[in-house]
Amino acid sequence: MSSPRASLSGFPELLPDQHIVEQHVVDTLRHTFELHGFAGIETRAVEPLDQLLRKGETSNEVYVLRRLQAEAGEADAGMGLHFDLTVPFARYVLDNAGKLEFPFRRYQIQKAWRGERPQEGRFREFTQADIDVVDRDELPFHFDVEVARVMAEGIAALGDLLPPMRLRVNNRKLIEGFYRGIGAPDPSRVITIIDKLDKLPAQAVADLLIEEGGLTDAQAKQCLQLAEIEAADVGFADQVRSLAVTDPLLETGIDELVSVVEGCASVNSDRFQVVASLSLARGLDYYTGTVFEIYMDGFENLKSVGGGGRYDALASDGKTSYPGVGISFGVSRTLLPLIGRGLLRGSRSVPSAVLVALADEESRDTSNAVAQRLRANGVAAEVAAAPQRFGKQIRYAERRGIPFVWFPGAEGAADQVKDIRSGDQVEADPGSWTPPGDDLRPAVLKEDP
Amino acid sequence: MSSPRASLSGFPELLPDQHIVEQHVVDTLRHTFELHGFAGIETRAVEPLDQLLRKGETSNEVYVLRRLQAEAGEADAGMGLHFDLTVPFARYVLDNAGKLEFPFRRYQIQKAWRGERPQEGRFREFTQADIDVVDRDELPFHFDVEVARVMAEGIAALGDLLPPMRLRVNNRKLIEGFYRGIGAPDPSRVITIIDKLDKLPAQAVADLLIEEGGLTDAQAKQCLQLAEIEAADVGFADQVRSLAVTDPLLETGIDELVSVVEGCASVNSDRFQVVASLSLARGLDYYTGTVFEIYMDGFENLKSVGGGGRYDALASDGKTSYPGVGISFGVSRTLLPLIGRGLLRGSRSVPSAVLVALADEESRDTSNAVAQRLRANGVAAEVAAAPQRFGKQIRYAERRGIPFVWFPGAEGAADQVKDIRSGDQVEADPGSWTPPGDDLRPAVLKEDP
User: What is the DSSP letter of B362?
Assistant: First the structure.
């Protein structure tokens, strides 16, 4: 019922042993999020277009839906595929405000779609893992620390599968207060210009600060000095204060950023660091305090693989405002470049730890019964598809990466199980045998680049 | 950034305590599928339109995509959202034929979309859980038994959460052979007419068999007699043979159906039955042997909540043909009517088993440390959002269904944990305490209708 097609650019698909990598990462993140009390939800894939178009920047990337056989005069369905999980979450909170308990911690691991030009790390369909906390009217600051901590733990729980990762943190109050403190006429304009530091050389940014930001040479220099500050500990605060700018909002921002960096300190390792990065601005204008971006060492070309921050009004229905803070981790963004380069893969292409051999077609019931006893102990098992020579059955297992082949004993003889990697073969009882822990489930294997 | 919207008809969304139900069902199915060696994959949400339109019946239900800001002259993206998981799987097999090991067992749990009129059990966005086995050139019959068995075990593993379920099975060879045996001029036309038995009274179907199927009165009567046969054991075979029709294809079909019913016998219980249903035809013409449908007692208005069968050519690239056999379980179709009527819900709205109380804001680090020690033992915990009176903190836990509240000991005193349902409060150490097994994770609660 299907004939071959070229694969669609920007819509990546994984082979079974690659899917194991993504599944492992998603399961690990979910486990961490749930340990911290975050409730899982899913939102529908579509949103009304007027919702999706409120974020001007991405309007040209939305996929609009229409029914193929729309009736005469029927317009587009007025819906598009969501391009992130934040817009749908905000809408979900408003739709269900009367039924949710606030503060509401949620995680959401789902696909999103953007019609942009595909390139490495940029896909038209991709999976994100988001955590957010939202409250009614007011959201205490300690939740900024909490979401940073939870995402940091989630990523750290992946151990050394990923390259060293950094969660860069900054605070809008800090930088806005600083720009105000130096006398910038329009601090939010300065934020927009400073945000270009990852694309333009420092001198070009300084020129823009002067020409478009209305700053003096000296003020522009101060802004660049602030942006140069980066520290994996609270030492950043002294560096900021050494610039001798004073402003109450700046002080609040410093205190908040210190809290986030301190709150995550115990998660830091040589594989994962939370870093105060004072150049981090995030262009979008709805962030009002903490801002985050996630980076993967050696993959700077991808820019950030995640990000987020504090919104004082994640959602509002006119009467009530719902402030939120959250971080999104780009699952596809992070993993697909690693999987694509062969740096991560599953140890086998099937869940089975055991292939039960089949002596002849008449023995299928016997082999099935052995497999059922193994499964009853939580050991994934499959029975050989055909009663080929045992050598062929072993190669069948080998090609799938199945570590053990089970030989049911003939005529009262004991069963035997063979580790096909070592060739060791021992007697075993399917009612009690289990493989070594590492072999029970497919593992994720990492190759050095 | 978002204002309230009426929810979109046909795009259901769940509250957190409802999502727990769906997650539990998906996790249970996945666990069963993996124990049997089925590999998980996901396919992209979109397929080229020409692929989607090959199944004529559903062409008017496809959602077509277009980029909102398509460039001048740019047509529709030529893609639509998939309406099932079979068409994408067939295409995936062809795309990756050189990289897959055959026979290939896969499960796929994903959303699909149809632009049809929403009604109970019929959604525009819905989740399905599919298992299929596909092979190159030839697929041994025992896989028909296997997929029936695996899906039966998956559903049976849900215990009594669902109403009693039936997996109805029939065989195209059996009925086609029977119709040939009685001398029907066009057996496949008879199949199409018999398929209407779930919509039309028997007499109306008999009339159609005579008028459109070209049968005599006596032949039409025999067809209806066959369709009346239904049995939860292999007794159906004698009933068919008592109709005294002989045909070699009929005999093959009887043997195959006996094998499926026998192979699933040990899964049968008062909650779940595999039933040979000789009226089951499934209209689609690509089924060539075994056919399945899943029914939920008391929800006959939904018709089937799943189905599938054997395709002799699931996919073909012109040179090689890929026969398959599979079953799809409608996760949304089954669960949403139950959840919507309040028959199933999660025991709490958050994963947390413990709320760690907060004496005052200065104690937040202490309470956080307790929560971290609990999490290190796999116990999901959250810290109270604000240092309210303890009575208020207990009600905070109650509203979310969190069963335990933890009180860190002040000044060297031991910590205490309170079961807020019984009121029992005991001393406990966060490094070793775990809740009773039933309380560790949210459970799924069932209300009698």
Answer: G
Residue window 183-242, chain A: list those with CB within 8 Å of chain B. Answer: none
Asked: is B164-297 a CATH 3.30.930.10 domain? The reply is yes
Tell me which residues of chain B, numbers 48 to 87, contact chain A at a CB-CB cutoff of 8 Å.
48-49, 51, 53-55, 59-69, 77, 79-81, 86-87
- A341 annotated ligand-binding residue: no
Q: Which CATH number fits domain A354-446: 2.40.37.10, 3.40.1390.20, 3.40.50.800, 2.60.120.10?
A: 3.40.50.800
Whether domain B11-160+313-346 has CATH 3.30.930.10: yes
Task: Please state which CATH class domain A9-161+321-346 belongs to.
Answer: alpha beta
CB of B132 less than 8 A from some CB of A: no
- Beta-carbon separation of B105 and A350 below 8 A: yes
- The helix or strand, by DSSP H or E, that contains position A270, with its residue range, turns out to be none
Q: Do B92 and A13 touch (CB under 8 A)?
A: yes
Q: In this complex, which of B11, B51, B399 lies closest to A46 when CB atoms are compared?
A: B11
Task: Nearest by CB to B23, from A40, A43, A349: name it.
Answer: A40
Task: Note down pLDDT in tens along chain B; length 449 residues.
Answer: 444 444 688 999 999 999 999 999 999 999 999 999 999 999 999 999 888 887 555 555 889 998 877 665 555 668 999 999 999 999 999 999 999 999 999 999 999 999 877 777 789 999 999 999 999 999 999 999 999 999 999 999 999 999 999 999 999 999 999 999 999 999 999 999 999 998 899 999 999 999 999 999 999 999 999 999 999 999 999 999 999 999 999 999 999 999 999 999 999 998 999 999 999 988 766 899 999 999 999 998 888 999 999 998 888 988 999 999 999 999 999 999 999 999 999 999 999 999 999 999 999 999 999 999 999 999 999 999 999 999 999 999 999 999 999 999 988 899 999 999 999 999 999 999 999 999 999 999 998 76
How many other CB atoms are found less than 10 A from the CB of residue A197?
A: 18
A34:B380 CB<8 A = yes
Instruction: Tell me whether B446 touches chain A (CB under 8 Å).
Output: no
Does the CB of B318 have a partner CB in chain A at under 8 Å? yes
Asked if B44 lies within 8 A of A315 by C-beta distance, the reply is no
What the block records as the tokens of B349 is 């709205």
Alpha carbon of residue B367 to chain centroid: 41
Angle at A190 between CA A185 and CA A192, to 5 degrees: 140
Is the minimum CB–CB distance between A378 and chain B shorter than 8 Å?
yes
pLDDT of A79-119, one tens digit each?
Answer: 999 999 999 999 999 999 999 999 999 999 999 999 877 77
Chain B hits for A94, Cβ within 8 Å: 2-5
CA–CA distance, A96 with A83 (Å, rounded to integer):
21
Q: Which of B20, B39, B79 sits opposite A349 (nearest CB)?
A: B39
Do the domains spanning A9-161+321-346 and A164-297 agree at the CATH topology level? yes
CATH superfamily of the domain spanning B354-435: Anticodon-binding domain (3.40.50.800)
b/e map of B89-108 (b: 16 or more CB within 10 Å)? Answer: bbbbbbbbbeebeebbbbbb
Which residue from B68, B103, B316 is facing A62, i.e. has the nearest CB? B68
Q: Which residues of A touch B51 (CB under 8 A)?
A: 2, 5
Predicted ipTM of the assembly: 0.95
Q: Give residue limits of the domains in chain B.
A: 11-160+313-346, 164-297, 354-435
Does the distance separating the beta carbons of A60 and B68 come in below 8 Å? yes
Give which of A224, A198, A220 is closest to A207, Cα–Cα. Answer: A220
> Torsions phi, psi of B33, nearest 5?
-60, -40
Check residue A138 and report its DSSP letter: -
Non-local (6+) Cβ contacts of A288 within 8 A are: A172, A173, A309, A310, A311, A312
CA distance B408 to A295: 37
Nearest CA in chain A to B287: A1
